[in-house]
Amino acid sequence: MCAWQVFELAPAGTADSDTGIAAVSRIPGHLEVWWVGANSNSVEGAYWYEGTPWARYLLAPDLASGDGLAAVSRIPGSMEVWWLTFNQSINDAYWYDTAARAAGDPPTAAGRTAATGSAATGSAATGAAVPGPATAAGGAQGGPPVPTA
């Protein structure tokens, strides 16, 4: 019988406890989780591929109000995250295995913003961000690398 293994993904006090977390598994052997930073109001994330350690990244700095977070992976090559902002809009960040991540509103204006009134529920929790540049193996801002077949 296998026993549960427990570890800390984000250090104590770094996650907004009122928002909760969102997570998806877009392919076998992959996990991705997002949360809102306790003091940074940023959307932060971490990813894991089987056989590798967890890696953390910053998805959207200073954009989240901490009032809601949701995510979905509708197809194996796609992930999408939504969060509520301080101006009562809903921001969206998406990732496709053929494109870098994009987040709504400055500083990365490639995302989409929707007016409030849409149904949006969910939550998030946070840790210190590990931003990184786009690389051949990963998305913008240190996003998950695209596995090769």
Write the layout of secondary structure elements.
Elements: E1 21-24, E2 30-36, E3 43-49, E4 55-60, E5 69-72, E6 78-84, E7 89-96, E8 99-103, E9 113-115
Antiparallel strand pairs: 1-2, 2-3, 3-4, 5-6, 6-7, 7-8, 7-9
Structure description:
- With 149 residues, this protein is mainly β.
- The protein has a single domain (21-137), classed as Neuraminidase, CATH 2.120.10.70.
- It contains no helices and 9 strands.
- The radius of gyration is 15 Å and the shape is globular.
- The protein starts with 20 loop residues before the first strand and ends in a 34-residue tail after the last strand.
- Mean pLDDT is 72; it is low at 99-149.
- What is the CATH first-level class name? Mainly Beta
Mean pLDDT over the residues: 72
Number of helical regions: 0
The CATH topology label is Neuraminidase
**Net shape:** globular
Strand content: 25-35%
Overall tally of domains: 1
Output the radius of gyration.
15 Å
Please report the distance between the alpha carbons of the first and last residues: 32 Å
Backbone structural class: mainly beta
Number of strands: 9
Q: What is the subunit organization of this protein? A: single chain
Q: Largest beta sheet, briefly? A: 5 strands, antiparallel
